[in-house]
């Protein structure tokens, strides 16, 4: 695309003309990155039986199913199906989710990767004829010319002169005007910034790492810690199936899914010390056992069964978590927080929908 533009030097300075067509052409013609994971899946399609290929292509499980599995796990704590601090495993899940989403946003904002589906932007959005002002100044002039790239590395300053272009549409979004340079609306898309944000749905450029896979891995890690066994093994197989389907259908590159898997496992392990109630209970029991060890030996020598039973009961009681609040208080607080959060979100959307 860039080679088709009139590039010339004026007094030793790079000048790029006819920039207005670049926005549309860049979105439509930028090739996806070479992905060896996609190549591997295509090669397997040629060699595996069609029944297996159909099974790999099948939409067995999706994002909302993983969230339903998490909700089932969270509510199972109320019926003593899992040991732990009640809502602790759910709190840990949401905390890790928030941290992971924050890290993901920092990651994909730092570098713009081309979409694995090149037609996405043209099919979903009204693309401006010219690229973003920053892209015109800092990226376009140095994107394809090796001499320009080498010079900008040496001088470490932008030196290209870009021709002026017609100002694009700038609606009045009041306090939300800062979103104009991000969303870049057109006149036919309406005055509502919330409508554009809602329609974005994650955008079309590749987002490193996969949010869907991150949720799937967190669900699998939570089930593995709570139950283990064949149920968790089955969930992990579903996670791998979802990963290959994300790659196969080109919603993400292979690297996005792989990074999401080990980031999810790492974050879950790192935050384990915050809600490690099971390990903490065991440590309390061992500490209490060391404390009463001598008394236990003396009671055993004296064949004092009642003393031994009392000491062992003390050890067991030391490992139990102290209940600071009743079940009713905890449920009331949870209901209040859920109601407050939903009302806050609804009010925010309704009061700021038009800027």
Structure described in brief:
This protein has 355 residues and is mainly alpha-helical. The chain has helices at 22-29, 36-47, 50-57, 63-76, 88-110, 120-124, 133-138, 146-155, 180-183, 193-200, 211-226, 229-248, 254-270, 277-291, 293-301, 305-318, 327-351, and strands at residues 7-10, 13-16, 161-162.
Q: How would you describe this structure to a colleague?
A:
The protein is 60% helix and 3% strand. α11 runs parallel beside α13 and α14 packs antiparallel against α16. The longest helix has 25 residues, at 327-351. The radius of gyration is 29 Å and the shape is elongated. It has helices at 22-29, 36-47, 50-57, 63-76, 88-110, 120-124, 133-138, 146-155, 180-183, 193-200, 211-226, 229-248, 254-270, 277-291, 293-301, 305-318, 327-351, and strands spanning 7-10, 13-16, 161-162. It has 17 helices and three strands. The protein has 355 residues and is mainly α. It has a three-stranded mixed sheet with strand order 1-2-3, with no helix packed on it.
């Amino acid at each position: 695309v860039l080679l088709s533009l009139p590039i010339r030097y004026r007094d030793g300075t790079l000048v790029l003309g006819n920039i207005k067509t670049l926005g549309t052409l860049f979105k439509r013609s930028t090739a996806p990155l070479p992905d060896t994971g996609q190549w591997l899946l295509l090669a397997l399609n040629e060699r595996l039986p069609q029944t297996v290929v159909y099974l790999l292509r099948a939409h067995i499980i999706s994002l909302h199913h993983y969230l339903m599995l998490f909700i089932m796990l969270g509510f199972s704590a109320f019926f003593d199906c899992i040991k732990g601090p009640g809502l602790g495993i759910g709190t840990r899940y949401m905390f890790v989710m928030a941290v992971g989403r924050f890290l993901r946003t920092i990651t994909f904002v730092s570098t713009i990767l081309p979409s694995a589906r090149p037609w996405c932007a043209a099919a979903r959005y009204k693309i401006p004829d010219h690229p973003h002002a920053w892209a015109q100044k800092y990226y376009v002039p140095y994107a394809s010319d090796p001499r320009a790239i080498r010079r900008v590395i040496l001088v470490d300053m932008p030196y290209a002169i870009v021709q002026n272009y017609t100002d694009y549409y700038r609606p009045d979004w009041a306090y939300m005007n800062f979103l104009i340079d991000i969303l870049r609306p057109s006149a036919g898309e309406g005055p509502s910034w919330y409508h554009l944000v809602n329609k974005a749905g994650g955008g079309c450029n590749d987002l490193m790492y996969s949010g869907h896979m991150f949720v799937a891995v967190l669900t699998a890690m939570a089930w593995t810690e709570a139950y283990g066994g064949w149920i968790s093994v089955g969930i992990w197989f579903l996670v791998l199936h979802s990963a290959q389907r994300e790659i196969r259908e080109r919603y993400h590159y292979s690297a996005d899914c792989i990074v999401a898997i080990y980031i999810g496992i790492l974050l879950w392990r790192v935050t384990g010390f915050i809600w490690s109630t099971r390990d903490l209970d065991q440590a309390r029991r061992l500490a209490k056992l060391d404390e009463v060890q001598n008394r236990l030996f003396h009671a055993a020598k004296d064949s004092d069964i009642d003393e031994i039973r009392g000491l062992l009961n003390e050890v067991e009681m030391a490992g139990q978590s102290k209940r600071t609040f009743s079940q009713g208080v905890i449920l009331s607080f949870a209901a209040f927080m859920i109601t407050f959060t939903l009302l806050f979100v609804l009010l925010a959307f309704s009061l700021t929908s038009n800027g």
